[in-house]
Amino acid sequence: MAATMKIKKGDMVQVLAGKDRGKQGRVLEARPTDGSVIVENLNLVKRHTKPKPIRDASRMGGTQIIPGGIVEKASPLDVSNVMLVCPTCKQATRVGVKVKEIKGETVRVRFCKRCNEEIDR
Fold it and tell me: Locate the KOW domain: which residues (predicted)?
């Protein structure tokens, strides 16, 4: 898997495949090494956890405990199953990359392939 992805943390994406197909959410974490992203409130899985004591929580009195039970948490989605939502045209779109010269530096800028507007400003 390539180390560069066209989807970054904070982007709004739409899910293309899986149980949450068609839903939109914000990217909480991008993992280029795995080629996956974690999307807020999408692809939720349930984990059964045991109660755990907190070590040196307050040093005053009894021990505090992290409650156990069934916890829902977002699991990673493959980056090929999500598509970026353009902030200007509000539609799921493919992403292109332009190389620009800004103050003598070359900068890679993402743009929407539907409306040709820049995504990174």
Answer: 6-33
